[in-house]
Amino acid sequence: MKTAILFVVMLLVLIIPHEWGHLIVAKLCGVRVNEFSVGMGPLLFKKQKGETQYSVRLLPLGGYCSLEGEEEAVDDPRSYSSKTPLQKIAILLAGVTMNIIIAILAMTLAYAISGIPSNTLSAVTPDSPAAEAGLQAGDTIIEIDGIKIRDWNSVVTAVDGYHEGDKMEIVYRRDGKTQEVFLTPDYDEENQRYMVGVVAGTTRNPLMCIKSGFTSTWEMNRMMLMTFQSMIRKGVKSDDVAGPVGLVRVVGQASSYGIASYLMLLALVSLNLAIFNIIPIPGLDGGKIFFILLKLISGGRITDDMEYKATVAGMALLLALFVLVTYNDIMNIFR
What we know:
By secondary structure, the chain is of the alpha+beta class. It is built from nine helices and ten strands. Strands 5-4-6-7 form a four-stranded antiparallel sheet. A two-stranded antiparallel sheet has the order 1-2. Strand 6 (168-174) and strand 7 (177-183) form a beta hairpin.
């Protein structure tokens, strides 16, 4: 039950802000928004505010934003179809942008809960090079071999860059006083890297959490794009993709490690959704943007009817993909 609730919450957090992004930018562009719905299926509750109906529907599996003239051209200056290409693209990109923002916020909150590894030491391993040199828990490393240290990643990078045979100079702060020591790192055969025997402390500084939220989201985005490139070059295996059933299992696993792990998973899925949605497949936001640009380049030779047929084909492809990954998820459960 807990996993099911967390899964539904994740879907709502992923989809509602996405659709809300479309809503806000559409209204800013003067487009009439007929309905904004939380959930799908039979209507449970509705409230009319101005020209927009705000609805809550039975199935909490997403939502939608219905724009006037989105599906077909309408002779109305306030319809989506009457807006300029730039306005249409802005409306479509708003959903993707919201998913990126959700990823950043989720990562920032995860760091605020779990803490960020810092360059202030929480412990020093006994009989290690750091212990023999006199480093203690509570010391803040501020420089290694002339390189300024501002976070734990800087410490790791500096130690990894050690050249065998040299002495490593570490400048640290203790009780407000700056001191320095020289030591020789040990090479750890198991981890195949140099180590000095220090353990990072953690910080929940709001500015550091926000910064790490941005940088981690960017790094996550870079890694996912590299993964997509690899999948295109080498082909896609069944184990490389997962659908809603597979996501339920992953949500259960992540939540068992705590709320921070759940939030990191939320960030990962939100960023995945943003990247997938921008792919130029008819039916997705990326596909709609592709046709807007195609119509501009072709000088109007690409008609709305062509776009409609491509969208139907794209939706059929997405439905087939959904069925395939769901089948794969179910088979993985039995395996």
